[in-house]
């Protein structure tokens, strides 16, 4: 007969695996944190607001019975040294990092390219592109130390479909995609799997900022996207260097 420990391993595919999620205070990041916790992961969560992180932590405790490690950081203003220290700190505490999901992103303003304000540009580059590079730089060693390291970076369809006034957002996400794809090729001969995830149109704060008159109740919800994103974090995941587009489940009749 299978042991209780084996039963837990079957029901919790991420039992005690260490997962770092950015942008975890709301939207897709918060929904993903809950999904990973439900699957057994031990979470390290990053977002700008302590209050938002604590709300996510409450939801994580409700499904898993244990809390997350909360790191309130602004990925543009004050994260330079902190992001550089995250990888070594995780390595010291856990000995590895099994999962990295960089979900944090900012839209900033929709504006003509010729009118982009330098401060807005710096913030958008800082969160959407530079933070991705710093996370890769900091987390590469602990991800390689895991038996089945998984890294996923949340992107946008705007990269493939440039549109007027979206230049700042699209360009920074395009840069992130190139960086991630290059890294994926560099680690291709290791157990680490690296992918991009495009959730398509989801009812998030960023979407509401871009389309304030839209009925969010008619859009895909973050909790619907989270399982597909979590699947890319599983040890059994074999995709690598891919751009995975979320496809909502079709209703059955």
From TrEMBL:
<protein>
    <submittedName>
        <fullName>SDR family NAD(P)-dependent oxidoreductase</fullName>
    </submittedName>
</protein>
<dbReference type="Pfam" id="PF00106">
    <property type="entry name" value="adh_short"/>
</dbReference>
<comment type="similarity">
    <text>Belongs to the short-chain dehydrogenases/reductases (SDR) family.</text>
</comment>
<keyword id="KW-0560">Oxidoreductase</keyword>
<dbReference type="InterPro" id="IPR002347">
    <property type="entry name" value="SDR_fam"/>
</dbReference>
């Amino acid at each position: 007969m299978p042991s209780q420990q084996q039963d837990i391993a079957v029901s919790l595919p991420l039992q005690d695996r260490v997962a770092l999620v950015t942008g975890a205070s709301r939207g897709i990041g918060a929904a993903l944190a809950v999904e990973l916790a439900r699957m057994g992961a031990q979470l390290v969560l990053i977002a700008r607001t302590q209050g938002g992180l604590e709300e996510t932590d409450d939801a994580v405790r409700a499904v898993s019975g244990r809390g997350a490690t909360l790191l309130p950081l602004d990925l543009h203003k004050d994260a330079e040294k902190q992001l550089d220290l995250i990888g070594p700190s995780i390595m010291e505490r856990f000995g590895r990092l099994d999962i990295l999901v960089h979900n944090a992103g900012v839209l900033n303003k929709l504006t003509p390219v010729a009118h982009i304000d330098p401060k807005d540009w710096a913030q958008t580059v800082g969160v959407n592109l530079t933070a991705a590079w710093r996370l890769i730089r900091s987390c590469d060693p602990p991800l390689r130390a895991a038996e089945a390291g998984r890294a996923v970076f949340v992107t946008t369809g705007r990269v493939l479909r440039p549109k007027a006034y979206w230049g700042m957002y699209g360009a920074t996400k395009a840069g992130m995609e190139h960086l991630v794809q290059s890294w994926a090729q560099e680690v291709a001969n290791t157990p680490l799997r690296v992918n991009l995830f495009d959730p398509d149109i989801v009812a998030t704060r960023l979407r509401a900022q871009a389309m304030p008159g839209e009925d969010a109740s008619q859009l895909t919800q973050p909790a619907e996207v989270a399982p597909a994103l979590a699947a890319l974090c599983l040890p059994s995941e074999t995709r690598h260097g891919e751009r995975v587009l979320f496809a909502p489940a079709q209703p059955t009749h």
